[in-house]
Amino acid sequence: MPSSVFITKNNTIYVTNYQYGKVIVWIAGNSTPSNTISGNLQEPLSLFIMDEGDILVDAGNPNGLVARFMSNGTETAPAMYASSYCSGLFVDINNTLYCAMNVLHQIVKCSLSSSSNTTIVVAGKFNESGPMPDELNYPNGIFVDINFDVYVADSANSRIQIFQAGELNATTAAGAGLNGSVTLIYPTSVALDADNNLYIVDLDNNRVIVSGPNGFRCIAACSGNAGSGPTKLKMPSFMAFDSYGNMFVVDGNNSRIQKFSLISNSCDLTTSDPTTTQYQTEYRTSIDSTINKITQISSNKQTTASTITSTVTTNITTKIATAAAATTAAVIPTKTIATTAAAAATTASQILFSNQSCFSPNVMISPPAPSLNSSLEIQRSQDIYFISLIDLNCNQSFSVSTKWTITACTSICSSQIELDEQIITTYSELYIPLGTLQYGIYKFDLTVTM
């Protein structure tokens, strides 16, 4: 079970395995681990990789220390002695190590440049939890900016706290206690980018959110429900970013690492679309990357210079076959759904704008489907899942919405069907649980509106 992830400047991935007490290392571009580090680790929860390559790892209880390994995995003297395990680790630009002592409700630090192992209290009261500005309640992730302000995921208080350098009283950056803020439920990881956008892993809401000029918005697993499908997270705990801006999330209860790729041509550079990086146990230690979906691309920022309305409709035909519709002897006719497999066609496009800064988006759907006469057969006992690849061409702020419709077909497709409540049609991917649709022929339309 993965518990934390760290990615270096050269995009080497480090993952702690809580169950087996190991750190597993993947060099960028390789699916096979380059190294496995164990030492005297027991249920490690966090790690941090130094610029020179040294690996700092929470050694877990009952050790009460932060272990230090050289880049080749050789263990050296501990980096810190703590009073409990560290659920979050961070090293600032002054080479100071911070530890979130979760069960003791306190953040401590010590200098890695000093021979002394003396720790200094940064935030919280030792073994005393509470909701006051000088208190914490089971803190986890830590981030320290260049001004040495400490951002803390104050998990059980459902808030993000900022402790300015040298201050023991915090201000709330997000969550409980801040009027008009986003609602958090047990946030566990926090990070700040170069534009001061605040990223938060919201564990019990099973999502990742980010701040911006217009407040917070969800960027990963935004359905609100936990799950194991490619559109969902289940108890996510930590996140890390590679040099390209891609985000990796520890999807704890799914025992995997989810990768969300930065959309480089988006007007909103903080928007991400996910692929899946599968974390395996020690019995199969590999990372498998496959594109599974593109999440809804959205931005709350509005342009005042022009009004943009762009709609592209893409058609996919899906056939749920009856006995008479079976196409081969190998198909079980009464249990078959069929979908087509060719490029989707654009059927409508309208753009209204006052300048030529934005153009119609390009939309592709997988699996593709061209017509009623060319369809893929899918078992009715299987889930149906469509993904869309949306290429946005715009150099100004905009918002995007997506909408799926399903139409029943005979010789023509004319009767839009009423959808079950569990089918969410406003994401850029469409998931239909097994057995939802009756036997027949269906057409699926995706409309993308800018």
Automatic annotation (TrEMBL):
Per-repeat ranges for NHL: 123-166
Alphabetized UniProt keyword annotations: Repeat
GO-annotated cellular components: membrane
Top-level division of the source organism's lineage: Eukaryota
GO molecular function annotations of the record: ubiquitin protein ligase activity; zinc ion binding
All residue ranges annotated as the REJ domain in the record: 358-450
GO BP annotation list: proteasome-mediated ubiquitin-dependent protein catabolic process; protein polyubiquitination
PROSITE patterns: NHL, REJ
The name this protein goes by in its record: REJ domain-containing protein
